[in-house]
């Protein structure tokens, strides 16, 4: 989508401008912040601009919440990478790997403050509704990370709990980004709610598709190592469905594979994938993505205040998010 | 001060009320937060209430920024304890010691969000100036922690840099707390500035006195282990002055004591204290505290909008902060 590229560039230019103004004396605090903001697809700030465009709001004003959601998102990545002990992100060392754990904690904290520092540049009457949405979402993301951490030590995760976790950890921020564009453009309550729900549905579909590609994607299009979730015993949509559907032998086999120490990683990946195939997990997963995509389409149709050409942009955006292999 | 006790109780009651309303489902995220808020002298929220009282503002409204500064302060303690690898705070295990490092990072992050969640309860026109003050201060506290971390690996710290560090890490939050009471009470620019500077001066004096008591206090009144800063090689007002004033032999001795591995802790404390005595560091330190206290008194006298009985309360407060041995 050409338009999304334009938004990305707008965001990058705006970031560079903002960071040229920071106190160079405490460079050590700010260097990891600019580093962490480099790269990535900028889906969340792009969502703010797209939504603002659709609801015919002020794009210049929209750069304020766009900055805030991207800053917040990268703050969560920075701290999550510490918590998950991850050393690579976007093909580069993570902040705690490049600097230190302490630096990652502290620079992350400063990022959180910069989120709000930016938001108070909004016109006064928009500050409260925007910060309300950001706060609600930010707490939900923390709750999602809490659930994700809790899942690490158990195989007993219901599908419902899993869906709640990915909703909190992934979908709500995309939904909030889209709804922020609507909020600052003074869209109707109905439209704010539907664009939010649209974001939840494509956010969930995005995450489940990510789970799917980890097992059944192609390295060159997925861009991440295939089978990594299996090696790291991650609770995914695929595994949780498999555990709930498998008969005794396969269930025991899965439990054993996901608790015992892994000697041969490739063998583990193959064994797990064989069970997934046998239980038709690929089909079940694709069906779930389809259902979520259809719900997202209904959300688009329910929008009252926008033209059909604007709706077309949202369809394209949903395609861009969900059909991607990367 | 009887009045401060009343404020403390108001704050504690208000906290209990707020936390009874949180989502119990994600208890694990919120338990460390309520735990970390227990105890402590609540100097910062008390400062907000005291200042609001002095400038004849609305005490009920003042509970909002009071909550925010105490939440922010405890958030910094929680993350600082991780960074400093400290296992005891207020005579109890720190959050990362009781739960885990990951839990301390995540619950700390949630606390930061709760700061702003609370602040948007203020009347709309007060949200922006209050968040501006909180943001500026919060970033300064991060910058102070950055300097403090940087000091860990060097003995080459100038007195100027040290004063900047304690200003950022300790004094600005007390100053901000006092000024927030003035801001929400619509005090004049002059009075907001003077109550802020009063906070900086007593905050600096408080920290330098803390450094002093670590070497020359009495366990029963100080409440912390005597000599701990010396054992942990902390850069204090005392050490930095001693390093800048000592002649060759004492300077080499100090450098050696602060870099070599410590075999006998008590012997190290005695040796360092002997050099401090020889260089008249106790007198220099007490003189610095006196100068700061006199500046704080001038700040009180410069306040235009309050009666002399209100000024009396500020004198008492300064005494309470600085003359304390705990």
What is the tally of helical segments of chain A?
16
Largest sheet of chain A: 2 strands, antiparallel
- Number of DSSP E strands of chain A: 2
* Poorly predicted spans of chain A: none
State the CATH topology of the largest domain in chain A. Farnesyl Diphosphate Synthase
How would you state the average pLDDT of chain A, rounded? 93
Multimerization status: homodimer
The gist of it:
The structure is a homodimer of 326-residue chains. Chain A is mainly α and 326 residues long. The first copy, chain A, has 2 domains: 1-137, Orthogonal Bundle (Farnesyl Diphosphate Synthase), CATH 1.10.600.10; 188-326, Farnesyl Diphosphate Synthase.
Structural description of this entry:
2 copies of one chain form a homodimer. Chain A is an all-alpha fold and 326 residues long. Chain A is built from 16 helices and 2 strands. In chain A, 48% of the residues are buried. The interface between A and B is large, with 36 and 37 residues.
Features:
homodimer; 326 residues; mainly alpha; Farnesyl Diphosphate Synthase; two-stranded antiparallel ribbon; 16 helices; 1% strand; globular
List strands and helices in order, with pairings.
The structure is a homodimer of 326-residue chains.
Chain A (H helix, E strand, L loop, with lengths): L1 H18 L7 H11 L5 H12 L4 H25 L4 E2 L2 E2 L1 H4 L2 H19 L4 H28 L7 H26 L4 H28 L2 H4 L5 H4 L5 H9 L2 H10 L7 H14 L2 H21 L6 H15 L4
Antiparallel strand pairs in A: 1-2
Helix pairs in contact in A: 1-3, 2-6, 3-4, 3-8, 4-6, 4-7, 4-8, 7-8, 8-9, 9-15, 12-13, 15-16
């Amino acid at each position: 989508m050409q338009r999304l590229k334009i938004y990305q560039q707008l965001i990058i230019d705006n970031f560079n401008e903002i960071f040229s103004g920071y106190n160079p004396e405490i460079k050590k605090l700010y260097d990891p912040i600019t580093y962490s903001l480099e790269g990535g697809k900028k889906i969340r700030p792009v969502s703010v601009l797209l939504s603002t465009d659709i609801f015919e709001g002020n794009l210049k004003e929209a750069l304020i919440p766009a900055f805030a959601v991207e800053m917040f998102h990268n703050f969560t990545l920075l701290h999550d990478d510490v918590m998950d002990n991850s050393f690579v992100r976007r093909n580069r060392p993570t902040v705690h790997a490049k600097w230190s754990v302490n630096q990652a904690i502290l620079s992350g904290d400063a990022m959180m403050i910069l989120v709000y520092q930016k938001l108070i540049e909004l016109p006064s009457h928009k500050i409260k509704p925007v910060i309300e949405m950001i706060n609600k979402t930010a707490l939900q993301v923390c709750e999602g990370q809490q659930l994700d951490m809790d899942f690490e030590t158990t195989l007993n995760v219901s599908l419902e709990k899993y869906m709640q976790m990915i909703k909190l950890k992934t979908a709500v921020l995309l939904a909030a980004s889209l709804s922020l564009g609507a909020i600052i453009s003074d869209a109707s309550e109905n439209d704010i709610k539907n664009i939010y729900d649209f974001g939840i549905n494509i956010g969930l579909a995005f995450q489940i598709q990510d789970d799917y590609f980890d097992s059944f994607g192609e390295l060159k299009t997925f861009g991440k190592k295939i089978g990594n979730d299996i090696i790291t015993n991650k609770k995914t949509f695929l595994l949780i469905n498999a555990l709930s559907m498998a008969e005794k032998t396969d269930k025991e086999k899965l439990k054993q594979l996901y608790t015992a120490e892994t000697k041969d990683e490739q063998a583990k990946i193959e064994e797990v994938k064989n069970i997934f195939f046998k239980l038709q997990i690929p089909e079940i997963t694709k069906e779930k993505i389809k259902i979520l995509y259809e719900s997202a389409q209904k959300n688009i149709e329910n929008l009252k205040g926008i033209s059909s050409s604007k709706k077309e942009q949202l369809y394209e955006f949903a395609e861009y998010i969900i059909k991607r292999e990367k």
